Amino acid sequence: MKTLEELKVVRDSMKGEVALRTHGNASSKYERHVLVCGGTGCTSSGSPKIIEELEKEFAANGLTDKVQIVKTGCFGLCERGPIMIVYPEGSFYSRVKVDEIPRIVKEHLVEGNPVKEFLYEETVAGDEIKSLDDTSFYKKQHRVALRNCGVINPENINEYIGRDGYAALGKVLTEMTPEDVIQTILDSGLRGRGGGGFSTGMKWKLARNIVPNADQKYVCCNADEGDPGAFMDRSVLEGDPHVVLEAMTIAGYAIGASQGYIYVRAEYPIAVERLNIAIKQSRENGMLGKNIFGTDFCFDIDLRLGAGAFVCGEETALMTSIEGNRGEPRPRPPFPAEKGLFQKPTILNNVETYANIPQIILNGADWFASMGTEKSKGTKVFALGGKIKNTGLVEVPMGTTLREVIEEIGGGIPNGKKFKAAQTGGPSGGCIDASNFDIPIDYDNLIGIGSMMGSGGLIVMDEDNCMVDIAKFFLEFTVDESCGKCTPCRIGTKRMWEILDKITKGKGTLEDLDKLEELAYHIKANSLCGLGQTAPNPVLSTLRCFRDEYIAHVVDKKCPAGVCKDLLSFEINKDSCIGCGMCAKQCPASAISRTDYIAPGKKLAAMEIDKNKCVKCGACIATCKFKAIIKK
Amino acid sequence: MNSAKSTVPFKGTPEQEAELLKVIEEKKNDKGSLMPILQKAQEIYGYLPIEVQAIISDNTGIPLEKIYGVVTFYAQFSLYPKGEYTISVCLGTACYVKGSGDIYNKLQEKLGIGGGECTPDGKFSLDACRCIGACGLAPVLTVNEDVYGRLTVDDVDKILEKYA
């Protein structure tokens, strides 16, 4: 596509098609579009087979030319996958099974009646079918970065163009100077979505101006989403890879670079495949390569795969990994904006940061700045996971409260359990307890309460999770992932883990809690990179919010949540036990035997656990149908 | 760690070597080519023993000790062969909070091996993996390309039977 006019022609021809899926002015050559989620989660749950079955049924019912099947990216409500949405009605079929397809095809696609019993219950109100936008999961969301996920086929560049794709790039190259672009991003208030929260506009400005006449500059994308529990970036890459390509090209124009690299985790094979397809289509259509849109500007993008090192999400480690070295960070200054990849000025931005750029260019800085809070503009994508009813991906304006995210959008805690804490920021972050439920989420507020925004992973924990065990879990992760270069991180985190291990095994002392805090402050102050500097955060924040839980472990030698095995004793309530002996049969340690005691109203003598032999595996509890065995 | 890991002799074929040499020839002049070359080499051989590292060193001019340093740094690069079926249990936060640790322990018990090891018959190898991003399905494990989600400890036997 050499000119903007050609781009417009494609856009106008596709606009009507794609609009069928967004309740806009639709003019599709198909009666209906059936969208099936092709993200990792739904693919693992069998969505490819669903597509196969749809194709089969369509052929049998003469629908192949009348109804379009579209494989899209993530719709967000992963808890309900595999997901299928039929437009123009917007019928949301949840937890779709292959054997439900024939009926859906017949009753809905041929006869025109959506099959209510297969729909997401919250959309069905008596005879009426509610719009998805009215459900509690979607009502408060505002999808900017995720705008195209679940709407377009990510493997078709024309659908991206139909949703105004590459119009921002066109505008930038023909109507704006690099300084205009940088000023727009600065004015929007966009801050890095990878967790650092650094002003994106400032980063680009520095890269443009510190070494203005560099012979080569680089634009990098950090797609090494390593925080366990985070899948925001994966969903953008799988559902809308072109938005990243377009944004990187805009960034290249802004700072004066001609080459970009996307460093993506190898653990995301679907994302890698979609990126490869997108890059190929972009090159074929002239959006990457020489003289883009007939201007002097040239830019190309290559993919580099990670190899399983969490630390390579750190900017200098990422760059040295691309260069073919061990992923060890280095001291700064010099900052990458001055000397980065291959010693040249480089910017590195997160996937979600890039996903916001084209919209900011098209709608203006004021539009973006009108959302969010004073210092945190725009929206944020969160990956809701753990003990919550609606696991999945949500995008909300900054300033939304934790209560809204967890109780309204997330649907609350399942199984009638009580909320205990929410972890943000992964292994670098901290826990937020119920007392902060109404805090508006933004970068500064979260730091103020001892946590951090992080990349967006939000793990919810309930009364059955032990916060000491969780702190130990995170430290185990950072000990494993530490690159080993600097002493405070390499050795300090290990020592902290050892203390936590002692505590969970009932051998901790009050002095150990002081030692933990002292170690934590030293490691934070002296580590070379963000991994070490933030590794103690989960420990510090759980110590602050759940100190009594630590004290129970250390003084009473008890685990209130019932998790730390060495602190639990398994006991049979002799009055509830009916003496069936099933527990003894299951016990791998032969620790259960019969007593002489026959409880009132029972026929057989009760069973009893020998605490010296018990290995606390829990097999007995799982077997007992009378709830007679408890762990305390 | 037991000695099952280090006693498997290198069985590289001339075809594999030819394929590797082709990859090196294509990529060696790209900037930062070592990582992509190692990734392709592991696809060809299944792992990266010192013999393969030496071939790469001889044909790229990169010192063997540097290549060894890179291979041992990254979790994805394996110096040891994997089993016919590699089981990876996700121990990421969302899965852990929903009990994947217990599933991992059950697998170790059932297969009689620890993490990072391979059963003596070469059938199964077991690893804990970092978050694979399917957190909506927690807890999750993979066996080669197949992903199993929403698991309980009782599902372990059924899954192992499928590959018996």
Description:
The complex is a heterodimer of chains A (632) and B (164). Chain A has 5 domains: 9-134, Glutaredoxin, CATH 3.40.30; 164-369, Rossmann fold (3-Layer(aba) Sandwich), CATH 3.40.50; 379-462, Roll (Ubiquitin-like (UB roll)), CATH 3.10.20.600; 467-556, de novo design (two linked rop proteins) (Up-down Bundle); 569-631, Alpha-Beta Plaits (2-Layer Sandwich), CATH 3.30.70.20. Chain A has 24 helices and 19 strands. Chain B has 164 residues and is an alpha+beta fold. Helix content of chain B is 44%, strand content 11%. Chain B folds into 2 domains: 14-73; 85-162, Glutaredoxin (3-Layer(aba) Sandwich), CATH 3.40.30. In chain B, α1 (14-27) packs antiparallel against α2 and α1 (14-27) crosses α3 (50-60). Chain B is elongated. The A-B interface holds A 40-41, 43-45, 78-79, 81, 225-231, 234, 266-268, 304-310, 321-327, 342, 383, 385-387, 391-392, 423, 426, 457, 459, 461, 465, 470, 473-474, 477, 483 and B 31-36, 38-39, 62, 66, 69-70, 73-77, 91-94, 96-98, 129-138, 140, 147-149.
Short synopsis of the structure:
The complex is a heterodimer of chains A (632) and B (164). Chain A has 24 helices and 19 strands.
What is the gyration radius of chain A calculated from CA atoms? Answer: 27 Å
Q: How helical, in percent, are the residues of chain A?
A: 25-40%
Order of the strands making up the biggest sheet of chain B: 2-1-3-4
Average pLDDT taken over every residue of chain B: 86
| Cα radius of gyration of chain B in angstroms | 18 Å
Q: DSSP helix count of chain A? A: 24
Give the distance, in angstroms, between the N- and C-terminal Cα atoms of chain A.
69 Å
What coarse outline of chain A follows from CA principal-axis ratios?
Answer: globular
Can you tell me the overall shape of chain B?
Answer: elongated
Q: From the coordinates shown, what is the CATH architecture of the largest domain in chain A?
A: 3-Layer(aba) Sandwich
- Separation of termini of chain B? 25 Å
Biggest sheet details of chain B = 4 strands, mixed
Mean pLDDT of chain A, nearest integer?
A: 93
CATH class of the largest domain in chain A, anyone?
Alpha Beta
CATH class of the largest domain in chain B: Alpha Beta
CATH superfamily of the largest domain in chain B: Glutaredoxin
CATH-level-4 superfamily name of the largest domain in chain A: NADH-ubiquinone oxidoreductase 51kDa subunit
How many separate domains of chain B? Answer: 2
